[in-house]
Amino acid sequence: MKRTLFAGLLLAAATTGAQADSTSTAMYFHSQVRDAPECTATATDGTITYPEAINSPAASCADTFAWASFLETIQAEFWNQWANDETVWVADPKPLCSSDGATDCCFVNIDATPQVGYRDASGKVREPDDIGAPGKHCPYIPADWGGSTETTFAGGKPGNSHNATFLRTLDPARVARQGQVEVVYRSDNFVRYTTEQELYSKPGLAKLYARVAGEAKNSRPHRPTGQSVTYPSSAMMFKVAWIDQETMVALGYVSDHDNDAKTPPQNPDRPYITQKIRASSDDGKTYHERIYYLASVAASSKALPGWHWFAFEHAENLGRCDFTGCNDSFGALHEVTVGAPLQPEAGKTLTTTFESNFIAPNIMDDALNDNQDLFDLGKRYPAGEMTKALTDMFDGMGIGTGDGAVDPENPDLNDPAWKSYRLKGTQTQFTNFDGYPTILGSSINEGGFVNSASCISCHVQASVNADGGNGAPGVGASGRLNNFGIGSQVSGEPVTGDFYDRGTANRRAVQTDFVWGTLFAKDPETK
Length: 527
Hints:
The chain is an alpha+beta fold. 17% of the residues lie in helices and 22% in strands. It has twelve helices and 25 strands. Strands 4, 8, 9, 10, 11, 12, 13 and 21 form an eight-stranded mixed beta sheet that branches. A four-stranded antiparallel beta sheet has the order 1-16-15-20. It has a three-stranded antiparallel beta sheet with strand order 5-6-7, with helices on one face. The protein starts with 6 loop residues before the first strand and ends in a 16-residue tail after the last strand.
């Protein structure tokens, strides 16, 4: 990260307009610089490399690595090439093939195309009925079949863009969230591993529980099953909040700026990536085809044992940095003026202006003469200019390099709208080294509870019980309400009691390596 530190020292009066103590103290614990001083990355001919001295970029350069992961996932054309939850956790799962010649089962063949799929009773590999739509018997990867021409998704939400509660102005992202089509895209190696370990069905997950619980009961102190569920180190989960056009217009995210009925509404200065999606909000009973907007991303890479977590948002999202701020030490810096660390003269305040990695939440005075501020919610934040290192990386990856019109029904690598997105933050540990619990969430993916969201603390609970069902019924919930009356989420270290009977090795639940997709696993349909 390159920052101009302590530029332009000024002598000022004793007051500098700094935040009141209530917010400045709290935000200080969210503003840690995530990248080491030597962190950078370059992209040449579509390949990203790091300086030789950096041997673990996900750990040492969390923000740089997040941008690299973002661009590599775009380069892979995740929207039409990657699997998603509904192509992995299928409707009527068949068992894993027990041998190369087995039939009516799910196979894995890393050296062939397709890599995974269904071999029917005659031994024929069956093509999915609709590439990009929910799978029937076995996981499949759209890229193996030429990619999807359109995403068909059964798990959309009904939403209510006409919501008239205070959320519309104080937390518009919560309203947007309730109308999203939330698609979690999965890399090829993620799907292969899920298939070969039979984690795509409840019977397969029940086998996992029996094996690991049996180890804890009968084999302790040793672990003959090894690390249990452990995804490949390059596996990726990429969760996108696609918001429908009606909601985007109603909440003011986009507008009909050109008065042209042939083009969808947009933000003319910083356009959104758009896509046509065929979605259902009643579990697949009926479908509607609409234009959806890529509003935010919450993603993770298995580059670290506890995964590397990161969130991106469109720069113009309302309330993007509300509650917790935005933190990016690589891609976009922002000039701020604050009190200098050392104050040499009593009665005077020395200030410093520098390029900060952190955007603090918007605030207002509470008008109670108590040195306390209130959050000024639901407004936009400055996008800032991308750093030269990031701009060069976009160019080297061949992303966002176009300047003409694009097809609004299909994302395009050249679309300059990819440059409209900003890193919200990264997370690699349950707590900072000073003991403060880490927080990470996007305004939309975690709308309504972003101030308590912790990706790593929620996902560590992902687990299954003896039946292959959910082993942590709260799914990250803390049981406490925030000031809006919306449920808050857990943060900090995991709790042993979620997985073991107190003081014993008796398993209550078996973890699935931070993967909540297992919630969608099903039993085979009864005949």
